[in-house]
Request: fold
Amino acid sequence: MLRYALLRILGAIPTLLLVIAIAFLMVHAAPGGPFDSERRLPPEIEANIERAYHLDESLPQQFVRYLKSAVRGDLGPSFRYREFTVSEVIGGAIPITMKIGSLAIVLALVLGIGVGITAGLRRNTFLDRLVTGVAMIGISVPVFVFAPLMVLVFAVTWKWLPASYAGSSGADRLIMPVIALALPQIAYIARLTRASLIDVMNSDFVRTARAQGLRTTSIIRYHALKPTMLPLVSYLGPAFAAVLTGSVVVEQVFGIPGVGRFLVTSATNRDYTLVLGITIFYAAMVIALNLVVDVFYAFLDPRIRRQ
Amino acid sequence: MNNFRHPNKFGAHRLLSVLLITLALCACGDSGPEPVQGSVLNRGTGEEPESLDMHKAASTSAGDVQRDLGEGLLGFTPDGELRAAAAERWTISDDGREYTFWLRPNARWSNGDPVTAEDFVYSFRRLVDPKTAALYVKSVGSIENAGAIIAGELTPDSLGVSAIGRYEFRVRLEHVVPYFLSLLTHPSTFPVHRGSVETYGAAHARPGNLVSNGAYKLRDWQLGSHIELVRNEYYWNNAATAIDRVVHFVSPEPMAELNRYRAGELDTTHTIPPESFRQMIEERPDEVRTSPSLAVNYYGFNMTKPKFGENPKLREALSMAIDRETIANEVMGRGEAPAYGWVPDGTANYTPRRFSYANLPKDERQRKARQLFREAGYGEENPLTIELRYNTSNVHQRIAAAVQAMWRDVLGVETKLVNEEFQVMLQNIVQKEVTEVFRLNWSGDYNDAHTFLSTLESDNPSNLTGYHSEEFDSLMDRAARQTDPDRRKVFLAEAESVVLRDNPVIPLYFYVNKSMVSKRVRGWGDNVLNYHYSQHLRLTTEE
Reply:
């Protein structure tokens, strides 16, 4: 298992390099630059600025310069936030995005699995249809509709919760962002769990267990739950990635200083180094999550372990 | 039956408890703006400032914070009148080119050091030094030798600034600049603390390092969240500062900012979103503050295209066919003023010129536009198709659609709307290859007609239409050489008349500054530049 994980980590290096190269080319190919505005600079001032930020060098020279320092862990200064390095910008934002993302995933798992099992065991009843219907709405309503609506109701009208992350220093500022992020995931996980449970409950080994006289609760708890989780585990990697990237909208609405918000602003600001830094972070996250999911999958499913 | 043992290594309850523990752990350890004693003002500041280094920032949001942190030789009153700031008085030589400033002997930096003439000499030199790579150098571009230093031909110490005594600072200009005093209110001309710059270099403007000379000092900066300032006890006029702590919250989304205001988290906003303006006027009329702004929204012609560059009648017809009242009142509706000229009302020492047809009835105007359009060589037999380019935004999309309809109804022009991300559009405008008609705006850097008119001078990099008129350039040149303000005003007005005759741009409307200001905030003055120094504000207990 360790050897497998190590090989996968080594294999991630060329993937990351490729991602950096493509992101570098794309961000430099985008029209405009980090210091462009309708207030055009006189050529001599423009030249001074380009020199200061090495933008006067050729693209391959800039790429090599970037790669050399990135390998040493130095992602360079942000072009937009001139007093901060990219590592500082991302370093401050990652914990916030991760915190809200993890909480959303935890909430989505707890509620999604619970609801999914309830619906799966009471198949084709009113409860099942209600849960499936609500889940459908959860998947369909976009976050950018749901999140501002929550702010309007819970912060502006009822004043129960802060309207923004910065509006409070307590844990209450996490409630709305976490719910907004978790909602589509709850719906998705519930549907996935329901379908998977129905499938497992109809399988041969469950029928055998029933024939042996085991109670339904024991069957679910000891035999059906684990195989039910399999499709869920393979969904968890993409789900976590979706929660992290999905946080872009949530971070805008709730004013959360997380990575997603910087990803958007850095792209529009043409903050080359910050775009690259955040791309590297996201790429590394997706690679790592997939690895974790694969390892976890092997742990859950003995058939994969044997392979 | 190996499969039927009870493994329970991965029981649901165990998973649940792990998840709940994670939840509990994650919910702890939050850090926000720490509560402190004293009065606190929470301001919405819009975009995140790019820097707090006086020489590295150019955005309005950075300026708002920098005006709280630092202080230039001059400042503004809440109503937008020039006032003495770090300099208590000044004289101007007879030829209008030499300014002598007497600094306040009691002025102090936030670490207690005295603010001296040497500080200003050092700061002005740093601003023009190519190594600083400052974005906003034009504020001092007229000082003797500034151009040659920026171009790398002379060293910064040859700049025309000197410290005559400990508190006497002298500036020598290359030519007369009648609005030079108002340039000295811009944060790029504020002093930087030499010791901190030399110790910390580029990091001197960060919390813990920044030494400032204004009413407030920097306490904290959480990127993406807020910048926190606290009272500078060493400030020479500290006794007049009412508010102890000011938090500038980053609020780039106007709707999210308004919600924060309505939830009571902000005392002031940096703008009011168009879709909520009328609602706010109805619900909270006393809290909506508007004032004319020194900014114009316009459509520019790509004058390098013969279709427009060589057909002044077509340009005039297209401009005349636009019903500016409808755009300002119906499409915008936040108090914007229809723009029948290039220089906004409220510009100091100036009487703006207006289109000759400004007061004509709508029908008459449209009839004249149609006549000009025919004289320009277009009509049913020779229809015109135009491409109108604007940056992606709801407001600009709505205006473009309205103009498209007006051109079609009045002149029969077919308009193709193209929206692009701002930087993409800007690049296209600069390259002048694909662009025909484009949307941009211009906001004044200082309160003088020159900031608007100079953008149409042939050699100004910000002249993005490619307009070139020797008559206009010569009038601007003559205005620049005038020491008599009345004569200068005449030349500037004549220059504006030339622009209104040539129509390289279609001014649409003049912007309006709009903010929500809580009833507990007092001292908020309405002014064209939209400057609101926190040191002029105070808080009451009224809600």
DSSP finds 17 helices and 18 strands in chain B.
